[in-house]
Specification:
Helices cover 31% and strands 24% of the residues. With 414 residues, the protein is of the alpha+beta class. Strands 1, 4, 5, 6, 8, 9, 10, 11 and 12 form a nine-stranded mixed sheet that branches. It has a six-stranded antiparallel sheet with strand order 15-17-16-19-14-18, with helices on both faces. Strand 9 and strand 10 form a beta hairpin. Helix 4 runs parallel beside helix 6 and helix 6 packs across helix 9. The longest helix is centred in the middle third of the chain and has 17 residues.
Amino acid sequence: MANVKPFKGLRPPKELVEKVASKPYDVLSSEEARAEAGDNEMSLYHIIKPEIDFNDGTTEHDPQVYDKAVENFKKFQANGWLVQDPKEMYYIYAQTMDGRTQYGFVVAANYKDYVEGRIKKHELTRREKEEDRMKHIRVNNANVEPVFLSFPTNEPLEAIIDQVKVTEPEYDFVSEDGIGHTLWCITDDAVIAKITEEFDKIPYLYIADGHHRTAAAAHIGEEKAQADPNHTGKEEYNYLLAVCFPESHLKVMDYNRVVVDLNGNTPEQFLEKVGEHFDIECKGAEEYRPAQLHNFSLYLEGKWYSLTAKEGTYDDNDPIGVLDVKISSDYILRDILGIMDLRTDKRIDFVGGIRGLGELKKRVDSGEMKMALALYPVTMRQIINIADSGNIMPPKATWFEPKLRSGLIIHKLD
């Protein structure tokens, strides 16, 4: 049962939201954040990427950077750029991209649901990335950025979305990347109670994006509980900031691969080896996108190829064996190109589907990379099946778009 509750959000006044809100901390470099913030002192980047307030070369892990985050967080509140709501409430956050809108509930989710497996993961985390986010939560005593969760579609919650979305929103703007952001505050006590009741009927929530943030928030919750002699389990530090979307609202984009070399093979030798496990069709210079599951797109030497996995390379009855990321990792990247660890091998890089196939062609044609491989995107249902089976997805398998906008709502831990 999903243990969520309403909370007093810390958020920008309506007239300042576009100045404060930003992209998440992990989708752009320090230099990009510095450029995007420009001379906007209200940009959330001053809290989530405070290295931009120092000279170039100051790393995001420098102790003075964490100190600066605290200083800026206090400054934002003192200046009225972030104001705490007077009442505990839920929020509904809608994102619109390419004519498609997804609606999520902004909630405080209990960290114990993560520890005890009711918030399920599908990726491994790295301790050093967890530690960074733990420090950020610890020094600010707040979840400044939300985690991105999903749940199997619930009709009463869908009905609440339908009722709310026709009312006047609190925020409604389009960010510089063309994504629409709309937020409603749920203040009606009966609706608040209904949301809590319906989430209580949902057995599991699933991490879509933000595995490191979720793990870090859970660690801080445990840390604070152990340090509090009067701990009851009701304290605000027991909860983390989450936006929960119905499964049916979400679209997972492709997450593609570019590789530096062919591991000593000529293009002809490489294609011959690929042909052992894939049916190959040359598409010429015209851009080719994978048409369905188990179909891949290869770009090599100025030509696009359709690769269709042969029977025996996949198992549609196995939550991992069905995945195209597994098929391509096993039969192309590992067996032919000698790439054993997608997380650490420097010969491979990954390109989110939001950049399009043109980005793959560009990186190969420039000579930076030798070949590119585009995959058919996984579905949210596949992610849920993997999480339910207790398995972990292969690395770099999912790309969610749009990303959650940071700075719309912050959750304080006191």
